[in-house]
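The protein record filed here.
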Amino acid sequence: MSDSRWADARRLEAWAGETRVNLIRAAALIGFYSYHLLNVYIIDPSFNDAYNLKVTTIVLAWTLAVGAIYVCLSRRWVPPALKYVVTFWDLALITALLLADRKAGPHSPLIFLYFLVAAASPLRLSLRLVYASTLGAMTAALLMMGCFVFILIGQSD
């Protein structure tokens, strides 16, 4: 197989991988927010309205990102930096979601979402993205824990 054919095949598979990750992201977002609304309005109506507003804002930002990525992918406009921007956007929103709950923070089971971001990166066929998402997940987790300990808990004393 010639180099140009290999590059074309790799670009096509990277596009398909990004499409799959965006579909998984959209399904996970629907599932998470459905469970959140079920929890807020039916299971435990004593939830804090401020927390619900923060989660709704984060989910709205994530939904807009999913829509923007869908538009880019449907027009087959995939700049080389798209996979990095999307990965770090996911990490930033996971961090915001974990910091939205002042009580749970790093104790929340949502901290495992960092591993999902790192696990989804091989679908885009980029070893650099695997390295970047792994280091980004570790850095985001450390920043989230530092913010939780030094800012959120520090303010409550």
User: Anything to note?
Assistant: Residues 3-43 form the longest helix (41 residues). The mean pLDDT is 89. The helical segments are 3-43, 49-74, 82-100, 113-120, 127-156. DSSP finds five helices and no strands in the chain.
